Amino acid sequence: MCWLTRMATAGAVDAYTKAEADTKLGTKADQTTVDELETTVGTKADQTTVDELETTVGTKADQTTVDADAAALRATVDADAAALRATVDADAAALRALVAAMQMPVTVDSAGDVGRYTSIAIRDNGNPVISYYAAANTALKVAACTTADCTGTPTITTVDSAGDVGRYTSIAIGDNGYPVISYIDRDNTALKVAACTTNDCTGTPTITTVDSAVGIGVFTSIAIGDNGYPVIAYYESANTALKVAACTTADCTGTSTITT
Question: In 3D, which of 119, 223, 224, 135 has the Cα closest to residue 168?
Fold first, then answer.
């Protein structure tokens, strides 16, 4: 009898202990459910890590938006780069064409033996005007270009043909816009100046002998002073000296001031 009572008492205690454990921990069935959930979703620790990652990086939806924005930005940058390359290529091609055109010589005058002792100046219209010696007829000539690069047909004029004239030319543009040319008269060993009366030297120029001393006028160079009057530097071969003739009028008529 006592043995049976002890067995019953022990069984009752075990049952109470199990019931209490089930209440605190959950039944085996409950634990199975928890295990399945952890397998599917992850433990609380795992979920905490996911939450932290989403907070730091963003959800998958956020990442998709970032990827789309990055792709759009790359496309814009690529398009801008392509447009810039196209512009640079076009500018480079235009520059090469301009350089090629500038390097292509233009024949301005080919009527006989012409083109020695050249000098060039730019007129007020931006077009060049060139003085030179025509050996074929021993004359001073001027070619006034009709374009900035001298393409097209220039206006060619014989300015002085009285004897062997036109060597060692130098040309400048006066304040009135008309060319003024210094050169030598070889027959008379004289320094001469031709002041054109139009901007292309057509018409009748004003021709003046500035210095007629023996053996002068070689290697002439002309410029326009602040007063609008031409000043000419040249070599006097007789005395092997540098001379300067300062004109007292815009066309060098009258008596020039000559200095050795």
Answer: 119
Per-residue pLDDT, 53: 57
- 140/164 Cα distance (integer angstroms): 9
- Rounded average pLDDT over 202-214: 93
> Cβ-count burial of 76 within 10 angstroms (0-12 exposed, 13-18 middle, 19+ buried)?
exposed
φ and ψ at residue 151, rounded to 5 degrees: -75, 165
Do 114 and 129 meet the contact criterion of CB atoms below 8 Å apart? no
Q: What is the tens place of the pLDDT at every residue in 131-152?
A: 999 999 999 999 999 999 999 9
- Compute the average pLDDT of residues 160-189: 97
The DSSP-derived string for 57-95 is H--HHHHHHHHHHHHHHHHHHHHHHHHHHHHHHHHHHHH
Distance CA 233, CA 256 (A): 12
CA distance 137 to 174: 28
Residues 6+ apart with CB under 8 A from 220: 168, 169, 170, 182, 183, 184, 191, 232, 233, 234
The CA distance from 218 to 186, in Å, is 9
The alpha carbon dihedral of 98, 99, 100, 105 has a sign of: positive
- Mind listing the pLDDT tens digit for each residue in 73-108? 999 999 999 999 999 999 998 888 777 666 678 999
Q: Which of 254, 241, 232, 240 lies closest to 169 in space, CA to CA?
A: 232
